[in-house]
Amino acid sequence: MGADDSKRRGLGWNWLWLMPLSAAALLIVEMHTIPLALRLGRLALQRWSWGALISPSAYFCLGAIVASIYLPIHVLVLIPTALTSDEGRPSRKAQLLALLFIFLAFLLPFVTDALIWGSFPFNIDSNGIARLRFIPFVPWPDGNFGDY
């Protein structure tokens, strides 16, 4: 072990602002995405059709639901990697990148909600007839945004 190995790479004092901000971001984001995923899972079970197994829209929607939960967590886990530096104190650019990651964690649910809404495979049209969507966003959903 050399003299350089004794110097630890870490976040240092950045934990003081990173942990509360990341915890708040994760709590706010996941308080929306997890209940939405559970609600859509229950709705999919109520409207279940075996045609969903061959529907690309169903797989796209499932992927968007998983991404809505996983990606904010993954983005927040990337922050310590961006802030860790060899010289001990992260650069201003690294700190701005960390703030950008936190902003991205807040932005991701808006994008994934739109993708989920447009690709949810078990639709009920304006006449009250249940239809299975095969292609995401085709036909365009009849109702308001967020109506399934």
List the uncertain runs. Answer: none
Q: DSSP helix count?
A: 3
Structural class: mainly alpha
Please outline the major beta sheet.
2 strands, antiparallel
Number of E-type strands:
2
Mean pLDDT: 83
- Overall shape: it is elongated
Distance between the termini: 60 Å
Alpha-carbon Rg, integer: 21 Å
Strand content: under 5%
> In which order are the strands of the major sheet placed?
1-2
Q: Report helical residue fraction.
A: 55-70%
What report would you give on this structure?
The chain has 148 residues and is mostly helical. It is built from three helices and two strands; from the N terminus they run αααββ. It has a two-stranded antiparallel sheet with strand order 1-2. A hairpin with a 5-residue loop joins β1 (122-124) and β2 (130-132). α1 runs parallel beside α3 and α2 packs antiparallel against α3 (92-119). The mean pLDDT is 83.
